[in-house]
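Course assignment 3, question 2. Fill in each field.
Student: A.L.
Task: Predict the tertiary structure for the chain below.
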Amino acid sequence: MFLVSVQLKKERNTMTSFVQPNYPTHHEGIERVGDAIDSATAAYRKFDGARGLATFLLAAVVSGLILAANQLIDTWADGHLLAAWIALWTVAFAALALAASPIRRAVLNVKNFDGSALYAAWSARRKARVADEKMWDYARHDARLMADIMRAVDNTPDAAKWHLRA
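Answer field:
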């Protein structure tokens, strides 16, 4: 009887061991969405907003110069129309050549401006000023602390500049 139950257990194990359902481990739609997000992220990283703004500002400067040159050229006589046309386009191309680099540099400086560093420096100066005011207020009421401060000031090279000692 014992032998029969062992064989039945073996048969049960072998019967279920060949059932292996093959479910897909990934979904093609989700992979396509992931690829689309990756390509959009890569495109965003390549985008340079400073370049577009620099181009826009350059176009504005050049169009202003062309307008000024056109107003100046309109005062000429009609016989000099070809010379006026050549002068107008000379101004346009010279403006493009001369203004492109400074405008691009200015836009990059504005883009890379870090206001948090300015705020941190201002905050540190303010905290130091408040701490100095508190220390000076304590020193006015404590002769020992005032003596320590005066001794420290006397030992600095700038003691005469502060006019604390006669």
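Instructor remarks: The chain has a mean pLDDT of 76. DSSP finds seven helices and no strands in the chain.
Grade: pending
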